């Protein structure tokens, strides 16, 4: 498995230059490193911020499981979507509100067919709310398909 988390990961992350705002590092509660977050007060309603994970060494015709922690904290905070390169227009995963402020786990299967996926984009869309944040952490890529826990 490949650790792409932000504090000590080996993966390459890039801010999208054509979006409305950047994701920023935020300190974890436990004090061990940081995660990437978009505070609710950044930008205007419907503005987007994209953080791209560049995947360079995925083998063709193989499958991977992308596992990540996410949090949508605050009322009407917005949406978090995940896009894969070869499916640019349709998100492969989307969440628009948290039941509470807790961190949850997202899992996405990545199939490497003839077209290989060379990036994963985490997109935050600003909601109406003024408090809270959208956060992503502990991004890990594992060989094989995701298993249901």
Keywords, separated by commas or semicolons:
single chain; 149 residues; mainly beta; Jelly Rolls; six-stranded antiparallel sheet; five-stranded antiparallel sheet; 11 strands; 48% strand
CATH-assigned fold name: Jelly Rolls
CATH architecture: Sandwich
Percentage of helical residues? under 10%
Query: Which structural class do you get from the secondary structure elements?
Result: mainly beta
Most strands sheet:
6 strands, antiparallel
**Low-confidence sequence ranges:** none
CATH class: Mainly Beta
Number of domains: 1
Instruction: Classify the beta-strand content into a percent band.
Output: over 45%
Identify the overall geometry: globular
Report mean pLDDT, rounded to a whole number.
88
Domain MAM: 2-148
InterPro entries: ConA-like_dom_sf, MAM_dom, MAM_domain-containing
GO cellular component, one term: membrane
Pfam families: MAM
Write a structural description.
With 149 residues, this protein is mainly β. It has one domain (14-143): Jelly Rolls (Sandwich), CATH 2.60.120.200. Helices cover 0% and strands 48% of the residues. The chain has no helices and eleven strands. The protein has strands at residues 2-3, 12-15, 24-27, 34-39, 48-54, 63-73, 78-84, 93-95, 104-111, 119-126, 133-143. Strands 1, 3, 4, 6, 9 and 11 form a six-stranded antiparallel sheet that branches. It has a five-stranded antiparallel sheet with strand order 2-5-10-7-8, with no helix packed on it. A hairpin with a 6-residue loop joins strand 3 (24-27) and strand 4 (34-39). The radius of gyration is 15 Å and the shape is globular. The relative contact order is 0.32.
